Amino acid sequence: MRRPYQILMPLLSLFLVRVDLTDLYALKVPVKVLKVYDGDTILVSHGSYRMRVRLSRIDSPEKGQPFMSGVGDAGAYSANCLKKIITLGSTQELMIEKEDMYGRILGDLKGLSLKLIERGCTTLYPHAQFASQQEKFLYLRALKKAKARKSGLWQYGGFRQPKLWRKFSKRNGHRQ
Question: Which of 56, 97, 147, 154 has a CA-to-CA distance to 121 between 20 and 30 Å?
């Protein structure tokens, strides 16, 4: 006859292996900003370790994605907007939240995501997760104000949600 610990210990070990510490609390790490890939992805280093970080809660247009008006590159505008806000080579505090399905680290640099929304450089990610209703309201209010002021991307009529644009352009062969 098997004893209870012979059954429970393997089950407990499976649970412990699957727990990610960032699920319990966000990690804060000092990093050096090395490169801006696009409006919501950057490259940072922590010592000799380099990480590709996807800024959380935001969604920026893809490179080559036009504005709704059809004129200009919304993705390039968003990337340039991020480059103006963040200083390459600077040391920042990265708050690591989790890893996304593509293996990128999801995180934020001292409220950078909110600053980008306030300046109209990007929009909210449709499936963004917030710590509280107050935080969600803060982001939604910033987006609404940026659209009302027609700042950043919104001065050119905004842009289609990147996921929809990729689907549409792939189907029609317009992807650049």
Answer: 97
Check if the beta carbon of residue 125 is closer than 8 Å to that of residue 119. Answer: no
Rounded to an integer, what distance in angstroms lies between the CA atom of residue 121 and that of residue 152?
5
- Strands 105-109 and 49-55, by their bridges, are parallel
Q: In the structure encoding, which two tokens stand for residue 42, read together? A: 């950057």
Average pLDDT, integer, range 64-70 = 82
Residues 6+ apart with CB under 8 A from 37: 43, 52, 79
Q: Which CATH topology does 25-169 take?
A: OB fold (Dihydrolipoamide Acetyltransferase, E2P) (2.40.50)
Longest alpha-carbon distance in the chain: 74
pTM for this model (two decimals): 0.79
What phi, psi does 28 have (nearest 5°)? -110, 125
CA–CA separation, 67 vs 175, rounded Å? 14
| DSSP letter for each residue of 62-103 | PTTPBPTTS-SBHHHHHHHHHHHHSPTT-EEEEEEEEE-TTS
Euclidean distance between CA atoms 112 and 137, whole angstroms: 17
Question: Distance between CA atoms of 156 and 134, rounded to whole angstroms?
Answer: 30
Beta-bridged to residue 6, according to DSSP, are none
- What single-letter amino acid sits at 33? V
Between the alpha carbon of residue 9 and those of residues 1, 17, 87, the distances in Å are 16, 12, 50
